[in-house]
Amino acid sequence: MSASLHAAVVRPKWLTALSYGAMMSLAIGLNLLPVFLTTLSARFGGEAGLSNEQLGRLGASAFAGLVAGILITGPLADRWGAKLFAVGGNAVMAASLAGLAWCPTYGGMCALLFWLGLGAGVLDMVLSPVVAALNPGRRTQALNWLHSFYCVGAVVTIGLGTLVLAAAGMSGAGGGLGGDGGLGASGGPGGDGMFGGGGMFDGADGGMVAFVVVRLGPLTLELGPPGADGAWRAACLLLVALPAGLAAAMAAFKFPALSAAGKRTRMRALVREAWFVAAMAAIFLGGATEAGLAQWLPAYAERSLGYPVWMGGMALLVFSVAMALGRMAAGAAGGRWSPFAMMAWGCGATVALFVAGSFFPARAVALGACVLAGFTGSCLWPTLLAVTADRYPGGGASMFGALAALGNAGGIFMPWLVGWVADSLDLHWGLVVAAVAPAAMLPLVLGMRPGPGRGRDLETRN
Q1: Which CATH number characterizes residue 110's domain?
Q2: Which of 70, 264, 292, 360 has the most CB atoms around it within 10 Å of its CB?
Q3: Containing domain of residue 276, as a range?
Q4: Among 393, 132, 397, 391, CA closest to 273
Q5: CA–CA separation, 373 vs 431, rounded Å?
Q6: Mean pLDDT by 10 residues, the chain (462 residues)
Q7: Distances in Å between the alpha carbon of 113 and those of 97, 103, 211, 412?
């Protein structure tokens, strides 16, 4: 199929699949930095390391870019179309990752992380309305599948970063984890695994300088010194291929109009609707449900349940896998289950699991309940987007932008509230406070169910 023919007609299946891949790309922007905070602290802070405030500023830079991308993209995508932003968001992420790989200064890192977050925010804003427009008869399924790939991308990013750190660390130590299909990290050129960490060359000062070698089949990349420089650089350069490839692939396709029949319902009309106000409140609570547990789970596992540090990180990985599986299950359920019933059951089950995770005396059961809450709460955000798009098909990108902004606001507020309560009492009580979010969301989604006189499309009155 030629590129010109791709650009002449909208191809829903191909473009939906590319959007799923772009959601994985988005996950890079939000999940790469936490893996390397300790590494970057040593790289830019010297022996003392960066302060907690300076480390927090790195994350805040990425988040500021995310929020800016969401707020800017919505109105502009309604005017200029989604293609510019889907391609541009991936391109900005690819360029930012390449810059981050070689950035020599802390200030430059902050600036480039802002741009990385901006690209992620643009994608966060534009992908949901694109997939909703491509799949008008199955929005709940398609949007749950779309958001499941964010979790897949998070797992891939965290896993790749961890493996690269292991390869770089072992190469610096001269150890070996090589072998066929494994992690090669010997003192010389690595084994036959994906990652080979090994080698020394003569530096300019006559000394010996280590370097990290990354092997991808027949391709071998020498990506710089191990530890603070080589591991971060290797991760950035390996991950840049995904957004760069997606930008090129998406450029060949025609994108759909983001409003039904090209007609758009203005935000000032939407915010006068009680149903839409309830939807904004509900997605705030949905974002709070996800982030309240996810951001505190490693610390809770380590400090309150007494697990080792590696177990806390593993719990977060499994939590992300559970979220991905939950959204895939919601997508596979299709039209066999009411989306409102799905959200209601998800809210109720998540409340019960939050309480069990906070206070069950057996720590293994408590941790298992926390991880399972990722499965039960996973459908809330994407399903709410879907039912809102079904109700207001003319809402366009601006409507999705407002919902995304409120959802992310919930994701900011609840982790702060959990921490505040934990400082006053302890983390068990802090975590159980997060159950307030799904508990408050339950009556909202029940009240939003279609009924007599509730199913009117706002477009018919504008």
Answers
A1: 1.20.1250.20
A2: 292
A3: 264-452
A4: 391
A5: 12
A6: 52 89 90 78 77 76 86 83 92 95 90 94 90 85 89 87 72 36 32 37 35 46 52 88 94 80 74 91 92 83 83 83 90 81 94 94 94 93 89 83 86 85 87 94 91 47 43
A7: 9, 11, 25, 18
